[in-house]
Design brief:
The chain has 11 helices and 13 strands. With 353 residues, it is of the alpha/beta class. It folds into 2 domains: 237 residues, Aldolase class I (TIM Barrel, Alpha-Beta Barrel), CATH 3.20.20.70; 77 residues, Type Iii Antifreeze Protein Isoform Hplc 12. Strands 3, 4, 5, 6, 7, 8, 9, 10 and 11 form a 9-stranded parallel sheet that branches. It has a two-stranded antiparallel ribbon with strand order 1-2. It is elongated, with a radius of gyration of 29 Å. The two termini are 40 Å apart.
Length: 353
C-alpha cells in the first residue's frame, strides 16, 4: 500500500518521510518560525509540522488543582496548563505565511489540530495531512472531523492504551480515513531509548494494516536507525535552530546541525536495505583483485586440452569463476593462450555458461 502525502509518497517502495516538528520553538516570533522552516529544509527534512491550537481550545483558564502543572514537569515554571499553551502556541494568523514560506522552498507542511475548529481552519490552507497527538487519541469528535477530509492521518501512541488505539483506528476507518500512519512514541521529554518498544512497529503494521513510524523524543539517532531497519516509514523529531536560545522544547529538540546527521543516518540505512542487483558470478570486468579466478598458468596451443597442469585458481578475480574448474578439465581451447591470459568461455570448445 502506498499513498500521496502532499507531493511526496508514503509506502514500502519510497524513502521514509522525515518530519521536523516546530512545536513552540519559535518563541512567539514569526521571524524565528520562518527561520526554522528554512533551516529544516536545509537540514534535509521532507516536511515541517506545526501545532494548531489556542490556550482556550485546549484547556480552561483555571487555577484549580486539575489545571496546574506538576512540580516534576519540565514546564512547571508556567504554573498552569493555560499559561503554558498560551506561551507555546503558534498564532493562527501566522499559518498562512508559514504555509506559503514552506511551499515556496519545496518543503511539505502540515499540522496537529487539537480540536475541530483547527481542522476547519487548516482545510482553508489546503493542509496535506493531519497529525493526531497522543494526548488527543481519545478525542473522538476530532478524529471524525479529520477523517472527513480523506487526507493522510498520523496517530501518535505515547499516552494510549491498546483500547485507545483500537478505538481510534476503528473511528478513523469507519468515517472514511484509509491513509493512516501509526507512530510508536514515548511521551517523556526527553525520552529514554529503553522505554521504547520497537516491536510495536511490526505489531501495528500487521494488526491494523497501516504504515508505521516513530515519534522520536530521545536524544540522538540510535532509535531512528533501529526503527528504519524495522520498517518505519515516517520519523518525527522536534527541531530547533543552532543558537542556544532557551525555548519551550529546546531541552529535547535536535538542533539543525545535528538534524543533518539524523537524516543522513536514516538515509544511509535505507540505502543498505535496498535490493541490490545480483551480479553474475562470472563477470571478469567487475571482478576483484582480492578474489580468485581461473588463469592460464602454462602455454596452451590451439586444439590442446585444458589440464590441471596448465591452469590455476589464482588472484585476481577477473577471469573464469573457480566453480567451473572441474567442468573444463579435458576440454580443448580454440586459440593459443599464454601464461597469464584470462580463460574466457569463448576460448573453450563445447563450453557455454
Amino acid at each position: 500500500m502506498s499513498f500521496n502525502f502532499g507531493k511526496l509518497k508514503i509506502g514500502k517502495k519510497f524513502p521514509s518521510l522525515i518530519v521536523a516538528e516546530m512545536s513552540g520553538n519559535h518563541c512567539g516570533s514569526l521571524k524565528r518560525a520562518i527561520q526554522l522552516i528554512k533551516a529544516a529544509k536545509k537540514s534535509g527534512a521532507d516536511a515541517i509540522k506545526l501545532q494548531t491550537y489556542t490556550a482556550d481550545t485546549i484547556t480552561l483558564k483555571s487555577n484549580r488543582r486539575d489545571f496546574l502543572i506538576s512540580k516534576k514537569s519540565p514546564w512547571h515554571n508556567k504554573k498552569s496548563l493555560w499559561n503554558l499553551y498560551k506561551y507555546a502556541h503558534t498564532p493562527w494568523h501566522w499559518h498562512q505565511k508559514l504555509f506559503k514560506e514552506a511551499r515556496k522552498i519545496g518543503l511539505e507542511i502540515f499540522s496537529s489540530p487539537f480540536d475541530e475548529t483547527a481542522v476547519d481552519f487548516l482545510e482553508t490552507l489546503k493542509c496535506c495531512a493531519y497529525k493526531i497527538a497522543s494526548s488527543e487519541i481519545n478525542h473522538i469528535p476530532l478524529l471524525k472531523r479529520v477523517s472527513l477530509t480523506k487526507k493522510p492521518v498520523i496517530i501518535s501512541t505515547g499516552l494510549a492504551s491498546r483500547k485507545d488505539i483500537d478505538l481510534a483506528i476503528n473511528t478513523l476507518k469507519k468515517n472514511g480515513a484509509n491513509k493512516i500512519i501509526i507512530l510508536v512514541c514515548v511521551s517523556n521529554y526527553p525520552a529514554n531509548i529503553r522505554d521504547y518498544d520497537l516491536k510495536k512497529l511490526n505489531e501495528f503494521k500487521k494488526k491494523y494494516k497501516v504504515e508505521v513510524g516513530l515519534s522520536d523524543h530521545t536524544i540522538g539517532n540510535t532509535l531512528a536507525a533501529s526503527s528504519t531497519v524495522l520498517g518505519a516509514k515516517l520519523f518525527e523529531k522536534h527541531f530547533n535552530l543552532n543558537d542556544n536560545k532557551k525555548t519551550v522544547d529546546s531541552f529535547f529538540s535536535l538542533k539543525e546541525e545535528n538534524f543533518k546527521y539524523y537524516v543522513n543516518d536514516i538515509r544511509s540505512i535505507e540505502e543498505s536495505l535496498k535490493d541490490k542487483k545480483k551480479e553474475k558470478l562470472y563477470n571478469f570486468h567487475k571482478g576483484s583483485k582480492s578474489m580468485r579466478s581461473i588463469y592460464v598458468s602454462k602455454k596452451i596451443l590451439k586444439g590442446e586440452k585444458i589440464t590441471k597442469l596448465n591452469i590455476k585458481i589464482l588472484r585476481p578475480g577477473f577471469s573464469l569463476h573457480p566453480k567451473y574448474f572441474d567442468q573444463i578439465i579435458g576440454l580443448r581451447v580454440k586459440k593459443n593462450l599464454n601464461i597469464g591470459d584470462r580463460l574466457l568461455p569463448k576460448f573453450i570448445k563445447g563450453f557455454d555458461i
